[in-house]
Amino acid sequence: MTAIEPGTTRRHSWFHRTWPPAAGLAVGLASGIGIADGAEVAPVVAASGFVYLVAAALGSRFAAWPAFAVSVVLIAAAKVVPGFAPTWGMLAIGAVLLLLGLARGRRRPPWGLPLQAAAMLVLGAVALLAAEVSPTWSGVLVAGALLVHAAWDVHHHRTGRVVVPSMAVFCAVLDTALAGLVLAVTLT
Question: Membrane-spanning regions, if any (predicted)?
Answer without folding.
Answer: 22-55, 87-104, 111-131, 167-187
